[in-house]
Amino acid sequence: MQGTPPHPGARRADSRRWKALIVIALAQLMVVLDTTVVNISLPSAQHDLGISDGNRQWVITAYSLAFGGLLLLGGRIADLAGRRRMFIIGLVGFAGASALGGAAVGTATLLAARALQGVFGALLAPAALSLLAVTFSEPKERAKAFGIYGAVSGGGGALGLILGGVLTQYLSWRWALYVNIPFAVAGIVGAVTVVREPDERPQRSRLDIPGVLLATSGLVLLVLGFSHAETHGWHARITVLLLVGAVLLLAVFVLVESRVATPLLPLRVVTDRNRGGVYLSLGLSVIGMFGLFLFLTYYLQVVKGYTPVVTGLAFLPMILGMVTGSTQIGSRLMNVLPPRVLMGTGFLVSALGILLLTQLKVESSYAAVVLPAQVLLGLGMGTAFMPATSLATHRVQPRDAGVASAMVSTSQQVGGSIGTALLNTVASSSGHRWAARHLQQAGSLGKVGYANHAAVHGYTVASWCAVSILGIAALAAFTLIQAPRQDTGPSAATDTEKTTAPALHG
Q1: Of 204, 213, 327, 458, which residue is least crowded by CB atoms under 10 Å?
Q2: Which CDD domains does this one have (predicted)?
Q3: How many whole angstroms separate alpha carbon 83 and alpha carbon 79?
Q4: Can you give the residue ranges of every domain in the chain?
């Protein structure tokens, strides 16, 4: 603020910080793109490599298991070994894994490459967000930077659908993996030349090996359990065993973290009311957003008969909505309104968008239903994600920046896994029930029309579930998050840091 002397611990702004933002956003875009770009190319890859139907899902699951299971470890390694160093290592490894996957001649090689992408993505994602947090500490600049980052994080998945469709249709499914290489090379060059992090380093400490084993095992079982729920059902014995095992391991993890001297996840990071509220509401919101991705992709391609390219282009309004919500609404209002207002309202606007999809019919037009639903979802999520990612690292202790950033990605990854499994199960079972009740219409509708009506009914029921979950996300944001607007008070340190550590965060 003008006229206010700088805080004694505040760092001098890096003159290359805006160039660094471009590099960080580029790396984040690569990671987010990879979550959806491969989905569109999967049918072509399956046919080309002769992947069985049973192994097809593992092309997606191998990535999500490694990524979700190792995020906390990646965040802590960034805190201990250096964020910029892990950022570069993550980029190099991700590029190598993408090259290996693109050149795969068999199922095993492709699955191994996808798992490696997840490993290096788990190093890269928390390092990127924590670098952003320590680079921008001035409130107005922080709002702009996190607005851009939020737009990339929110819109990247939908952009991946477009890119995946174009690459698969006009080149080859292999380019859905090769496309990461130029992103990574540009990121590496930028990281070496313009990305810097503060000279301050936390004191060296031992890595919490018991915590690593418990957290990684628990998160892997959790993601795997939801994946099995999607394919085998919630009542399948393997699903129940995996989810119960995950809960037990994560419960023991929390107990261990409360007792060890140098925990992998210091409980102060998640027990802070504001950060805890961010992690919970973000995770819940992603469940609803993944529902839209999942159902609209099938609806547009299977029911409406759109090509992969046209399907991808049909998601453009959501991307534009996210960019607008993040950079024009969230970033402009973050220094005016408390985060809970922006987040809660954003989730409610998103819920309104999905509410429109509960009215979806086989004969519905894109312009009348799908278009406004996407615009509302994009605007709402963009507005909410921007203050959420900023608040998750706001005033966090410097030695915890990496793991606090990792928790943002972890909540989104777990939310995505739950959303895919839960909403797909709801849609499938509802569709089957509709088909059983309307057998007499099979003759008049025809085989394809009958199947399409059943599927669309399932999508609308699942959309009602997504609306309810986004409503709960909004409630969590309004009630749990009590932080004031983020330009008030000293921005350099938390209460526990003011006398003990240099300030790194806004």
Answers
A1: 204
A2: MFS_MMR_MDR_like
A3: 6
A4: 17-197+264-480, 208-263
